[in-house]
């Protein structure tokens, strides 16, 4: 008898951690529909309407989704909370698993195949993801490709572009992210130098959805349903409170 074909998992992916918010529907690895939410606000007013619009356009019902994937940052404190709380609510409503994915990881995985094509097998340079954190700072995380798998070299620090560039020294790297594009001079990026820029937009919902599919062991559902935001910088309200307490003392 012929083997039955297992239907591809339908995925709703969302990311509101930066002003380049996005939504995506995937059927397995295949991108079915995508919507950018470029905005200077916190995406709260557009998110649910955008999800309804995308599902309707694709002829899907929310109940058909077998996975909801959400970007957990780093990025805007308010934006991350909006995305995570919305994803949790939708997953609870539908009764499907939730996968929480770092935007840094999603972008690194999205460009890993490109990086492998830049060098002989086994000699791929490290990948540096540099995201603009505003206030003259960047988020940075470094990855290495080993035996076809991407591994995180260290936790992402928050620092100035000048400090990050100096820390690179003379190492060979490929860099991606809006921080890398904005601070290319400080990071020593050039077409012929040891550091190269790979352009990639930050509408990351599709990349988040694909990485979530590849991380099935990390899916959470039922009583374990939760998602921990990736906050590298404390929210302004907490920072101001700490400053006031310090001055009062």
Quickly describe the structure:
This protein is α/β, with parallel strands linked by helices and 249 residues long. The protein has helices spanning 44-58, 77-94, 103-116, 161-168, 178-182, 205-214, 236-248, and strands at residues 10-15, 20-27, 30-38, 67-71, 98-101, 127-134, 137-146, 149-152, 158-159, 173-176, 195-197. It starts with 9 loop residues before the first strand and ends with a helix.
Features:
alpha/beta, five-stranded mixed beta sheet, Nucleotidyltransferase, domain 5, disordered C terminus, 249 residues
By CATH, the architecture of the largest domain is named: 2-Layer Sandwich
Secondary-structure element pattern, one letter each = EEEHEHEHEEEEHEHEHH
CATH topology descriptor of the largest domain: Nucleotidyltransferase, domain 5
Number of strands: 11
Structural class: alpha/beta
Classified in CATH, the superfamily of the largest domain is: ATPase, nucleotide binding domain
Tell me the strand percentage band. 25-35%
CA-based gyration radius: 19 Å
Q: Whole-Å distance between the termini?
A: 78 Å
Please state the overall shape, judged from the principal axes of the Cα atoms: globular
Q: What is the class of the largest domain in the CATH system?
A: Alpha Beta
